[in-house]
Amino acid sequence: MIAMKVMKFGGTSVGSIESLLNLRNIVNAQTKPVIVVVSAMGGFTNQLLAMCEQAQQRDISCLDVLETARKRHHDAIDGVVIDSMRDEVHATIDRFIDESLKTYYLALATNPHMPVDEIGRLCDAIVAHGEILSSAIVAGMFEDSVPHLSLNYMRTVPDGTGRVLDWEETERLVKSDFASMTDGVHVAQGFISRDKESGDVTNLGRGGSDFTAAILAALLEADSLEIWTDVDGFMTADPRTHPEATVIPTMTYEQAQQMCDAGAKVIYPPTIAPVAARHIPVWVKNTFNPSAPGTVIIDN
Ligand code: ADP
Ligand code: ASP
Ligand code: MG
Questions:
Q1: CA geometry: angle at 116 spanning 100 and 109, to 5°?
Q2: Is 133 helix (H, G, I), strand (E, B) or coil?
Q3: How many other CB atoms are found less than 10 A from the CB of residue 277?
Q4: Are 209 and 191 in contact (CB under 8 A)?
Q5: 206 lines ligand 2 (CB under 6 A)
Q6: Nearest to 8 by CA among 208, 265, 297, 294
Q7: CA of 205, nearest ligand number
Q8: CB of 10 shorter than 6 A to ligand 1
Q9: pLDDT tens across 179-207, in order?
Q10: To test ligand 1's pocket by mutation, which of 9, 39, 229 has the most ligand atoms within 8 angstroms of CB?
Q11: What phi and psi values does residue 9 have, to the nearest 5 degrees?
């Protein structure tokens, strides 16, 4: 396997021009190839879901929120996308908003008798657009970007009332999609997937982009997984509610798993196991303070 790392950038890390420019500097400093997994722009997933609720109440003002989000994405493109790709990325954003999102919201708003499972499918298809749009912007930031589409290889199967990753099918598809790891910045969406049988768009759960990155790191035998977020590392407690919290420089997978299970939101709990099983170090780093040492999570 070729030496490479997987770097995941969360919602705040792709949420503004300032953070996207930091992302660019961080990624440009890496040896290529590198895999960059991105979340939706901060807050947009919540907005997409809130708009689903509004549309079901036949409240068409959700389309106003969509226009605000369109502007936010276009402003980001103007701020960060390279000249040669800017027009194309603007057009991509408009196409997804006009041809997919608007159509889906209008379908929800105008079909009072839509069956519940159909509503669920439509909302899953809608919420996937957060990562689809942000990844188009990030891929447009690098001359040597190689865009991937996680809908093509992340597969889920039903599990009780929820769903779980189908590891076998995902492994087959990931290995084929990333078979020729050409040098460059490989950009993939976190969170999004498809149902193995139906092909319907699904997702890995809220906060699931960390898990996407861990799955890719594990299946492609990455040298390391980096979780780039908005705090200086994995801390003794949530700094939002515990200002006295300090960064933990080194943790074991077991310690990290325990803290994640207890609610430390900095890493989505299912993320740890696949990388722990392959002894892949996990770094937690701050996009807004990249020189801070961060946290490394290792065997012992
Ligand atoms: P991202 O959008 O990058 O995935 P998240 O909001 O999911 O970021 O996770 C980062 C947030 O997790 C931090 O802003 C912090 O408030 C919260 N958090 C909760 N517990 C911890 C902890 N133990 N260490 C660090 N951050 C924590
Ligand atoms: N965008 C998704 C969410 O907000 C996934 C993620 O950010 O990890 O939950
Ligand atoms: Mg997160």
A1: 45
A2: helix
A3: 10
A4: yes
A5: yes
A6: 208
A7: 2
A8: yes
A9: 988 999 999 999 999 999 999 999 999 99
A10: 229
A11: -110, 125
Mean pLDDT on 121-130: 98
- 1 band by pLDDT with thresholds 50, 70 and 90: low
φ/ψ of residue 263, rounded to 5: 110, 5
Residue 274 CA to ligand 1 centre (angstroms): 20
Cβ < 5 A residues, ion ligand 3: 10, 207
Residue 77, domain extent: 5-298
> Alpha-carbon distance 6 to 268, whole Å?
16
Calculate the alpha carbon distances from 250 to 83, 234, 261, 287, 294 in Å: 41, 9, 18, 19, 9
**CA–CA distance, 127 with 74 (Å, rounded to integer):** 19
CA dihedral sign of residues 151, 156, 157, 162: negative
Query: Residue 274: CB within 6 Å of ligand 2?
Result: no
Q: Kindly report the protein residue whose alpha carbon is nearest to atom 12 of ligand 1.
A: 266
Beta bridge partners of residue 250, listed in sequence order:
296
- Look up the CATH number of the domain holding residue 151: 3.40.1160.10
The CA distance from 150 to 37, in Å, is: 10
Of ligand 2's atoms, which has the minimum distance to the CA of residue 131?
1
Question: What sign does the dihedral 24-225-148-158 (CA atoms) show?
Answer: negative
Indicate if ligand 2 lies below 6 Å from the C-beta of 294.
no
Average pLDDT, the chain: 97
Number of structural domains in the chain? 1
